[in-house]
Amino acid sequence: MITERLRARTPHSAAESMPRAAAIIRAGGLVAFPTETVYGLGASAFDAPAVARIFEAKGRPTFDPLIVHIADRADLAHLFTEHALADPRIAILADAFWPGPLTIVASARPEVPGLVRAGLETVGVRLPRHETALALIRAAGTPIAAPSANRFGRLSPTTADHVLEQLDGRIDAVLLGEATEIGVESSVVALDAGGPARLLRHGGIPLEDLARVLADHGGAVVAAPTAQPGAPLPGPGMTESHYAPMVQLVLATAAFPTGTKDCALLAPDRAALTHLESLAAASGAMVHGSVALSELLDPVAAAAQLFERLHELEALLINRALPTARIIAAPYPEGGLGSAIADRLRRAAATPQ
Ligand code: TXA
Ligand code: MG
Hints:
By secondary structure, the chain is of the alpha/beta class. It contains 11 helices and 15 strands. The chain has helices at residues 11-26, 48-58, 82-85, 88-97, 114-117, 131-140, 160-167, 207-213, 270-283, 299-319, 337-350, and strands spanning 4-7, 31-33, 40-44, 67-69, 102-107, 122-126, 144-146, 173-176, 187-190, 197-201, 220-222, 248-251, 262-267, 286-292, 326-329. An 11-stranded mixed β-sheet has the order 1-8-2-3-7-4-6-5-9-10-11, with helices on both faces. A 4-stranded parallel β-sheet has the order 12-15-13-14, sandwiched between helices. α10 runs parallel beside α11 (337-350). The chain is globular, with a radius of gyration of 21 Å. The chain starts with a strand and ends with a helix. Bound molecules: threonylcarbamoyladenylate and magnesium ion. Magnesium ion is lined by residues 147-148, 156, 236. The site of threonylcarbamoyladenylate (TXA) has 28 residues, from β5, β6 and β10.
C-alpha cells in the first residue's frame, strides 16, 4: 500500500486535501491526522471493518477501546444513550473543556461497534481543538474513531514524520499538518451514575480542573487502579477494563472440552466451525448456537464483529436459562490481527465466572 501524503499545513492546502482524505475515510480507509494532543489514526467510527484495520495497521496484539472524535456536540446523540446524555456533567465538561484534550466516557448507544468499545458498554468521545482534525471529521460527515497513530509499543507521534516512520505503507494517507501543540494524550474521564467522575487516564486536562468544574456535581477523583485478571500491565491508561463474558468461555485447543452439556460454538471460519460442530456432536453436547467469524479465514472481518458475536452467544445462553452452558471457542490462529483476536479469546477464557 502506498501512503498518500496530503498537505494540510496552511488553510489553503488543507482545504485542497480534505475532500481526498474524507473520501478515504468514507470508503473505509485509514487516515492519520494531527490533533492538538498527538496524531491520531482515524477510521469511520460506525464502519467496523475499517476500525479493525486500525488494529491491524498498529500491530496491536490486543484490542483497546478507541476514542471517537466528533466535530459538533450534536453528534453526541449518535454515540451516548439518552440516559447518559441526561447527565448534566456532560454539558458542564463540554462547556469547560471542549474543543480540547478531554475524553468523556459514558454509556454507548448499541449502534457503536463493539470493536470501538472493545466490548464494553461505554464509549469514549472527544471534540478536539485542532482545525485539521475538525475539518476532516466535518468533510467525512461521520465521527472518526482514532487511537494515537503509532505502532504498538512505540511512542505516540507528535509530527507527521513520526507517523510515517512507523506507519508508512500500512495506512492509506497522512495529513501533513502542524506539529501537535500539547504532545500528551487527552485526559479520559468516566461518568458513572452516582459517585464522582473518575479520571481513567491523566492527560491534557488536569484533575484539579475537572474537580473544580464538577464541584457541585460530585467532584472528580483518580480512578482506583483495578488489577483485573489477564489485563495487560502496564496498560496505556491508568486502569484497564476489559470485556468479560457472563457465561463461561472455554477454548477447545485439541479435544472438545469434557463435561460440556449445553453450549454455543464460535470458530475462526466456516471450515473450523464445521469441525467444531462434529466434535460437539461426537461428545453428545447440545449446541444452541454457532458462529463462524468469517467464511474463509479473514482477520479483519472477524475482528470487526468479534464482540457483537460474543455478546449474541452470551445473551442466547442466558435467555435460555441454561446455568451450566458455556461458549466453546476454537482458538484463533496467531499472526497479525489474528493475534489480537486470539488474545481476546484467551482473556475471555481466563475470566473467572
Ligand atoms: O489525545 C488522545 O486521546 C489521542 C488523540 C488521537 O485523540 N488518542 C489516544 O487514543 O490517545 P489511544 O487509543 O491511544 O488511547 C485511548 C485510551 C484507551 O487505551 C483507554 O485507556 C481509554 O482511552 N478509553 C477509550 N475508551 C474507553 C472506554 N469506553 N472505557 C474506558 N477507557 C476508555
Ligand atoms: Mg496510544
